[in-house]
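Researcher: Batch entry, complex prediction.
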Amino acid sequence: MPVLILSLTLNGIVLGLVYAAVAIGFSLVIGVSGVINFCHGVMFAFGAYFFWVLKDVIGFWPSVAVVPVLVGCVGLIIERILIRRVYGLDPLFGLLITLCFAISLEEIIRMVFGPAAYSVSAPSFVKGTLIWGDFIYPQYRLFTGAFSSVMIASVWLVIDRTDYGAIVKAGMFDSEMVGALGHNLSILRTSVFILGSAIAGLSGILAAPITGIKSGMGTAILMPSFVIVLMGGLGSIPGTLVGGLIVGLSTSLATLIIPRYVDIIPYLLLGVILLARPRGLFGEQHITE
Amino acid sequence: MTDKRPATDKTERKPPLPKRLKDPYFWIFLIFLLYPTFPYFGRFMSLGTELLIWFIFTLSFNLCLGYAGLPSFGHGAFYGVGTYAAGLVFLHVFQESGFLIPIASGAVIGALFAGVLGFIIRNKKGIYFAMLTVVFTQVLYFICWRWDDVTGGESGLKGIVRTSFLGLDMTDPVIFYYFVFVVFVLAAIVIRRVADSSFGMSLQAIKQNPIRSQYLGYNTGLYRFLVYLISGFFAGLSGALYCFLTQSAFASVLDWTKSGDVVIATLLGGGTVSFYGPIVGTIIFIISQEVISSFWEHWMLLYGLSFVVIILAFPTGLLGMLKKK
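Model: Structure tokens for the complex:
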């Protein structure tokens, strides 16, 4: 039993880190551009599918380098053609247009790759299992957890410690004022969108060997992102990390007690947290409120 | 009354249309009264009934979006709750006495859920409001999907049948269509009364400038809560009617894409500029969905793209476009 709890806890942490990595981009785009971007999940799916295509051609590490660039380019195109048209409109427009576009993109995935789900094998250097007494755990999950942690930490460093990050944070507080101070708001929003897309694509690579890939994986990851962003507070990276861990751990550990109702647990926790702290755990007063 | 004006009145060249003929409701009611006799569509009674049900749904939704400016992305929740409530009340309580009480209870339960959510989020704004409504819908979806003992889980509620009502055999699709038509007419008139009342005016004021409205003494939170409650009532009503149209209830009615559909339908027609926008939009939406889905396996691609283009090109919808000209 303790072994089971340990492995479920580890599962939860790994899952939570992947969720958090996806949710960071979602949260930053909401903060800087005021758009609830339903296409974000599809970027996650694109990452996984691109990886699936490329890994046999160029190997694991080169694809880890190439795929985020590709997904970032897709993000650039989508932002330039579509998303920028809804800036400043009612949030419902952004939500609706990105939702409709996400439906189309998912259908394109289905057209190209078929509706079937595929399993992806872990890269050879972390293929085995870790055996420690009674405790057996797949190495790949540990690798995923470590990689996501590094990814989240570096995004946090960029946002918290660089000039660029300072502009992004100011943009989340009041984007019009940032524009008035002479920063190019349009480029800022585009760059944040590309950054978010690239992180989502990279998370898609990491998640693929664990969950497999299927055409609906993009919209499936959106709801956890919603919960995490609301839980941690809009635009807060530590909040997103904590929210991700709460969602990951609670869903994973709840399988021990109430396996049928696992999906509902994060929402109930979210309800409790929002009643106590309406802006989420790390949320501050935001311009969109 | 204008139609009693003597015909010899020379100051007016064209006598104005009788007031009743100017009322869009008159034409909408007339068209749908005659729907079963239409040459092509008349055969598809369930399509017509679905249209009427959706009219109630989108009109009620537009009270929130077009009048109060609430970006609600969770109206599917109240629709779905109405569907399940009607089904459960029918199956467990009032199986013998027909479907009137189940339908009424669907509406009341819809209002109840909308009231609870509306009370919690009455003072949230913009993005927060939209996200919280999405999350609320998702919770209900999972509950209906997982709570086998009550909702039937994945297999849904079965065994719902339309019995006879006032001596009329409701299993006949045409008679059921007219039953829904009567409900639609009543609901539509009530919703327009609400929209045209001083309450509706206040909502528009709050939409345009919430802070000024507060200074004028309006309790904006209370107004938002009330309009959510009313809107939830009619959304629940339409969901309950849908339950008896399909004679079943599945968790798919609570899927969040449903909440997206109602927003698309309302915006397409121009819910933000006209009271009648949702009706126009629903007709376009439902019919195009039927048409597009019938001729291509990957119709979702066209479906998504066409709505993206239409909404971007005409953000105020069809009626908004016509008004501008």
